[in-house]
Amino acid sequence: MGFIDDVIQQARKNPGTIVLPEPEDDRTLQAADTIEDQGIAKVILVGDDQMIADKLQTLGISRSFEVVNPSKASWLDDFTQQFHDMRKAKGMTPDQARQTILEPIPHGIMMLHTGRGDGLVAGAIHSTGDTLRPALQILRTAPGSSLVSSFFFMALPDTTYIFADCALVEDPTAEQLAEIALASAESAYAFGFDPCVALLSYSTKGSAKSHRTEKVIEATRMAQEKAAERFPAEMNVRIDGELQADAALVEKVGASKAPDSPVAGKAKVLIFPDLDSANIAYKLVQRLGGADAYGPVIQGIRLPVNDLSRGCSVDDIVGVTAVTVVQAQMSKK
Predict the structure, then answer these.
(1) How many CB atoms lie within 10 A of CB 190?
(2) Which residues contact 297 (CB under 8 A, 6 or more apart)?
(3) Distance between CA 271 and CA 216 in Å, rounded?
(4) Sequential DSSP letters for 167-219
């Protein structure tokens, strides 16, 4: 089985409920049919109920889904009041709160906040900001986390890596880079990966020196120090840097360039120094290396909300939904 098949199997053990707030898109409805057919999750569609019924009929999908129309929901007034209470210090009026909660994505995220769902997947027809802004406003960060970041699963024929942060934090400080490394180690462990984490640079162990390498060195120090407090010994989290990509991945190169490193040549989690390098790297590995890229998967938020590429396929939505279910399983532990 491939990587995503393993995730789907894990999701099936405790499927939960996933909110899909983009039912006007055919791919979302086709994915919803597959998600329920495969036992990955129960789906709640958020949107206009008549539009959804018409589109399901046009697509030939006979499955009956739970549908929430924000304008008809019995909890609309309550959601509006709660959201206004959250945002009034920022100048939001009650009318603005109501208009926001009438939108499917914020409404769906408020459903998570009030225990009416376990996770949400969106982004097929909305920007990352449209998905994550209300998630941060309503759900906030997870306990013990100081930053929301993202990663991609990069699935190659013989192995899978985690690349972070490829979508959110543009130019992380040393402290932010350390938090990305720690969150990615935790995510790796939860998905059955060896939490062997390399903080990447154009330098290995002082082979070059600049403010850029110093940032990675300081982030490594901070991450190592916090990992000892944050993770139990049985997780076997190893974090090291600064390492060049070949030193992190290739055992012979790692042994030559960083012989005392517990990570060199063995890394499964790659932490990039900025969004430029991370985004470029994942797209090169995907397009030239033939990897399947699943993500961006969001980490550090209180409940799982994940973003899709607007060029996503039905299979992509199914795969990210399975990932979201597994994250929901983690959040309940």
Answers:
(1) 17
(2) 150, 151, 152, 153, 187, 306, 320, 323, 327
(3) 10
(4) SS-SS--HHHHHHHHHHHHHHHHHTT---EEEEE-S-STTSS-SHHHHHHHHH
Beta bridge partners of 69: none
Neighbours of 180 (CB within 10 A): 29
Mean pLDDT per segment of 10 residues, for the chain of length 333 residues? 86 95 96 97 97 96 96 96 94 95 97 96 90 91 86 91 94 97 93 94 93 96 94 94 96 95 97 96 94 88 90 90 92 71
Q: Does residue 67 sit in helix, strand or coil?
A: strand
Q: In sequence order, what are the residues at sequence separation of 6 or more whose Cβ sits closer than 8 angstroms to the Cβ of residue 284?
A: none
Going along the chain, which residue ranges are E strands? 17-20, 42-46, 66-68, 119-122, 149-155, 160-164, 196-200, 238-243, 269-271, 292-299, 305-307
Please name the residue that has the structure tokens 């055992």.
251
Q: Comparing C-alpha atoms, which of 30, 37, 42, 40 is closest to residue 68?
A: 42
The whole-angstrom separation of Cα 27 and Cα 288 is 26
Ordered structural domains, the chain, with CATH:
3-140+309-331 (3.40.50.10950), 149-287 (3.40.50.10750)
Q: Which two tokens stand for residue 36?
A: 């329920």
**pTM above the 0.90 mark?**
no
Question: If we measure between CA atoms, which residue out of 92, 37, 94, 24 comes closest to residue 64?
Answer: 37
Is the preceding peptide bond at 143 cis, omega within 30 degrees of 0? no
User: Of 226, 190, 234, which Cα lies nearest the Cα of 333?
Assistant: 190
